[in-house]
Amino acid sequence: MPSDLPSDARILVVDDHVEMGRMLQEPLADAGWTVDLATGGQEALGLIRSRVYDAVLTDLRMEKVDGLDVLDAARAVDPELPVLLMTAFGGVESAVEAMRRGAYHYFTKPFRLDEVRLYLGRALEDRRLRAEHRALKQASQERSGLGALVGRSAPMRGLYELIDRVAHAAAPVLLRGESGSGKELVARALHFEGPRAPGPFVAVNCTALPGPLLESELFGHVKGAFTGATSVRRGLFVEAHGGTLFLDEIGDMPTELQARLLRVLEDGEVRAVGSDASRTVDVRVVAATHQDLEARVREGRFRADLFYRLNVVTLRVPSLKERREDIPQLVEHFTARSRARNPRSRVTSLSPEVVAALGAMPWPGNVRELENLVERLVVLVPRETVTLEDLRPHAPVPEPESPLAQAQEGVWTLRKLEGEYIHWMVQHCGGNKTRAAELLGIDVSTIHRRERER
């Protein structure tokens, strides 16, 4: 078998002339493939529905169930399963029709066995490449789309639903939330879950550059437009054509640039610094801020017309304090990612006590702060499981005060004490309500109900 042909594949050969089927089966098996033989179309239908094949080679003219029936059955089970047909010269017209219906190739009898092996090899290679492409696309979407967002809490489930609805819209989106809460991940999800996914995703932080440089970065410049402009720059709006431009911390954009941004949003045209010509761009703008834009509008530091233009669709990204029950899942996710970046690390997990402590911390830096802490532990701790003693040098370890201690400061009703104890136990379990329910000997639905009552 030539080395460039895929091996380790399962092929179904279908022919109601047993001698012809065996004549094909043996050399194909010698080529390294596993070959099943069906001595008629009816038998082939049963095999296709009960086994997984990588390719089907079938005669076209057979009694009762012919090759077109086999083709239809194969494509019904797996639309990408390659089906190759064999036919006498007089059946070429039917074979061409089969190609229109999705057959991969057809051979006219008599044919050479090396030709059959060649086209089967091509079909198997095409199938392998398509599978790899799907896997890479899925991996990319998991890194950049909804798969990059971690958490199953109620606030996150609500956010997922909004992303799913908003991703296919054309209007600008304003993301609001605390610093470090994951607004850029949400922006990427909006891009990669929508029709612009094949296009570019371009991000810029509006606080990272002074006004003149940000203007050049966004809109581009021509050669000689200002001192140091020794070459032409297209600008990020042009680079994002057909895709999404993410403007992080839009609240810090200088007011003179806000006017230019408004014109782009309204007219769909950008003009490079120093140019007298405009260029049409097709860009969806997703902006983000942790600031109170309404207050900045009242103070005259943010244009009201730009605010209203951006505020068509607003998504609020919850802080980590609002989704503490996601902390165990986030810790597991960040540990795995940190280990991949630091393969020499011995850390494989964080102890339940550490996860519980992390669940009780205030997290002013939100998810970003948690990720940085987990990576620091993965890099520095010289053992497989991170303990509370390992955590203490890197973070203040809060000890959740027992509800019994709190109750001594005043008179509590028994129901309030019960509710606070349930809440304390959830914190003690690092936000894992299922584990807390097991320790308390109650159903997890009771925890959800009591949380709503708090």
Structure commentary:
It is a single chain. The chain is α/β, with parallel strands linked by helices. Helices cover 48% and strands 13% of the residues. It contains 20 helices and 14 strands. It has a five-stranded parallel β-sheet with strand order 2-1-3-4-5, sandwiched between helices. It has a five-stranded parallel β-sheet with strand order 7-8-11-6-12. Strand 9 (269-271) and strand 10 form a beta hairpin. The longest helix has 32 residues, at 113-144.
Brief description of this entry?
This protein is of the alpha/beta class and 454 residues long. Helix content is 48%, strand content 13%.
* Biggest sheet features: 5 strands, parallel
- Distance between termini? 71 Å
Based on CA atoms alone, the radius of gyration comes out at 31 Å
Note poorly predicted spans.
1-6
The strand line-up of the biggest sheet is: 2-1-3-4-5
Number of helices: 20
How would you state the average pLDDT, rounded? 87
Helix/strand/pairing class, anyone? alpha/beta
Q: What tags apply to this protein structure?
A:
single chain; 454 residues; alpha/beta; 5-stranded parallel beta sheet; 20 helices; 48% helix; extended
List the SSEs and their pairings.
Layout lengths: L9 E5 L3 H13 L3 E5 L2 H10 L4 E5 L7 H11 L5 E5 L4 H9 L4 E4 L4 H32 L9 H13 L6 E4 L6 H10 L8 E5 L5 H9 L16 H4 L4 E5 L6 H13 L1 E3 L6 E3 L3 E6 L3 H6 L5 H7 L2 E4 L10 H15 L7 E2 L1 H9 L5 H15 L4 E2 L1 H4 L11 H5 L6 H15 L4 H8 L3 H10 L1
